Amino acid sequence: MRILITNDDGINAPGLKVLEDIASEIAGPGGEVWTVAPAFEQSGVGHAISYTHPMMVAELGPRRFAAEGSPADCVLAAVGDIMSDCLPDLVLSGVNRGNNAAENALYSGTVGGAIEAALQGLPAVALSQYFGPRNALADDPFDAAVQHGAACVRSLIDGAIWDGDDYRLFYNVNFPPVPGAEVLGQKVVAQGYRRETFFGVEPHFSPSGRKFLWIKGGPQDVPTDAGTDAEANLDGYISITPMRADLTAHDALAPLRERLQ
């Protein structure tokens, strides 16, 4: 199997090394793991692409490239140039430092990389490690992903729905904020919503008196509704959420037609 990996934390991020090990185990001795990851951190860029300026791509080693762009850019670079003669069988994005459950998924560059892969017609999985008091300060805060990542991805390869629709399915996986030995299993759940938790801004002033705004998020230990991602993660489960890039509110189409057509 030929696997492409990317992330949004950057080419030197520890989570990417975790993903390299996961991908190598999945690919097997006869497989290949290709890395095309951002040269610098791209957290929070979502599905952004470098549409108005070119990006430099540097080859760092065999099948290892750094691109001055977003995770979606990295997938485009791989599909359109670096791997154009040998497209990947699977794209893995992550392992993100921090969760991409609930509303975080909408901002996530990690998920953005998986979205672009799906739009390019490739099977894709985004993987993120939830942090909390039981793992954030551990020797290896990615322990849950390390211990369960390969088995989770393999279960998706073998048992997930891989459709060929125009907006094809991709999968968003979040590992719970616990040590690997305390993971209770995995659950297929919907994307949740953390009420009263929003991104906002915090103003600061430089020594010269200029005002700057830092973007900051809200509490991450807020559970979402039963049967959704953050709730499952905080209960100790790996969450698997099937997603599409189709933003249509299909449930609103029929009533809206009755009112407006």
TrEMBL record:
GO terms for cellular component: cytoplasm. It catalyses: a ribonucleoside 5'-phosphate + H2O = a ribonucleoside + phosphate. It is found in: Cytoplasm. It is an enzyme of class 3 (hydrolase). GO terms for molecular function: 3'-nucleotidase activity; 5'-nucleotidase activity; exopolyphosphatase activity; metal ion binding; nucleotide binding. The keyword Plastid does not apply. Gene3D superfamilies: Survival protein SurE-like phosphatase/nucleotidase (3.40.1210.10). Its EC number is 3.1.3.5. It comes from the Bacteria. Its cofactor is a divalent metal cation. SUPFAM superfamilies: SurE-like (SSF64167). Keywords: Cytoplasm, Hydrolase, Metal-binding, Nucleotide-binding. Signal peptide: none annotated. Binds 1 divalent metal cation per subunit. Nucleotidase that shows phosphatase activity on nucleoside 5'-monophosphates. PANTHER family: 5'-NUCLEOTIDASE SURE (PTHR30457), 5'_3'-NUCLEOTIDASE SURE (PTHR30457:SF12). Belongs to the SurE nucleotidase family. This is 5'-nucleotidase SurE. It comes from Brevirhabdus pacifica.
